[in-house]
């Protein structure tokens, strides 16, 4: 699970605009430190035995390090992200890379935040959010194009502009971490209805991008700012690697945002 990840780099990472509440153009990242944070994340993936693929960032794309928004991939199909105008220039680079790698790439006419708003859970479920960066009509498109059973969720504010800030797929079977205050009441009911083990995360830790983690069943790679969630995960037998993400956080992202999962298992062929 999550053994093949697409990353970019932080060489052109800047805060040129404010499209989420964590971004402030007057607070720029220290570039060398941001590059270092990103390299440490990639090194942690490799140390955990994950495969890492790489698309170089482009100078005109200051958010390209956040590859999670590029698409959501299942089997050999990739539904391409359709980001806000500020990030449109990124799309062609990811589209070219995915096509070159042999993925069947699907373009969509509606706003779509890619894996940022579409988290595979188990083999057949897709936890997908709408209302912030993703149009509600994408729920049907994702079900049709990727053959997932879509669990539609809504976060309560732009503080959770992408679902991967509010919900974390930790990698243990049937286990999710989530921030209850980040989801609306129908979404909470839907989540509880899944019958999964749910680990609750406080707003305080979630706002530090605690849930923006990569888990593969053995290792969880996450930010350093969330000791309570880290302890909960260790109690469940997981190896937890906590990394500095303070510079990347100035763009409103963390560990999960910088990695697009490429090897979600395909759907079962229908008979
Ligand atoms: N600055 C980027 C944006 O607002 C951050 C994206 C983070 N990605 C994520 N999957 N949460 O689009």
UniProtKB/TrEMBL annotation:
Gene Ontology molecular function: amino acid binding; dimethylargininase activity
Q: Which UniProt keywords apply?
A: Hydrolase
The membrane-spanning stretches of this chain are: none
Electron transport keyword on record: no
One matching Pfam family is DDAH_eukar
Q: Which Gene3D superfamilies match?
A: L-arginine/glycine Amidinotransferase, Chain A
| Origin superkingdom | Bacteria
Q: Which residues form a coiled coil?
A: none
Which GO biological process annotations does it have?
arginine metabolic process; citrulline metabolic process; positive regulation of nitric oxide biosynthetic process
Family label: Belongs to the DDAH family.
Protein name per the record: N-dimethylarginine dimethylaminohydrolase
């Amino acid at each position: 699970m999550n053994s093949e990840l697409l990353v970019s780099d932080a060489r052109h990472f800047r805060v040129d605009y404010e499209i989420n509440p964590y971004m402030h153009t007057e607070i720029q990242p220290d570039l060398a430190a941001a590059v270092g944070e990103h390299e440490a994340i990639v090194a942690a993936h490799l140390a955990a035995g994950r495969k890492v693929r790489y698309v170089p960032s482009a100078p005109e794309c200051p958010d390209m390090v956040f590859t999670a928004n590029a698409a959501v991939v299942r089997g050999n199909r990739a539904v391409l992200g359709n980001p806000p105008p500020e990030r449109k220039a990124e799309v062609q680079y990811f589209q070219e890379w995915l096509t070159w790698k042999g993925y069947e790439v699907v373009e969509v006419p509606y706003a779509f935040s890619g894996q940022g708003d579409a988290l595979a859970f188990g083999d057949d479920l897709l936890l997908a959010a709408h209302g912030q960066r993703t149009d509600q009509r994408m729920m049907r498109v994702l079900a049709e194009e990727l053959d997932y059973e879509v669990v539609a969720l809504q976060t309560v504010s732009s503080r959770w502009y992408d679902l991967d800030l509010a919900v974390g797929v930790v990698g243990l079977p049937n286990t999710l971490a989530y921030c209850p205050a980040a989801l609306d009441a129908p979404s909470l009911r839907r989540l509880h209805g899944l019958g999964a083990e749910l680990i609750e995360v406080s707003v305080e830790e979630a706002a530090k991008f605690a849930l923006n983690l990569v888990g593969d069943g053995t290792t969880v790679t996450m930010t350093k700012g969330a000791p309570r969630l880290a302890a909960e995960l260790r109690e469940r037998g997981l190896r937890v690697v906590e990394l500095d993400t303070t510079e990347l956080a100035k763009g409103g992202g963390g560990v999960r945002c910088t990695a697009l999962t490429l090897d979600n298992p395909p759907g079962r062929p229908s008979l």
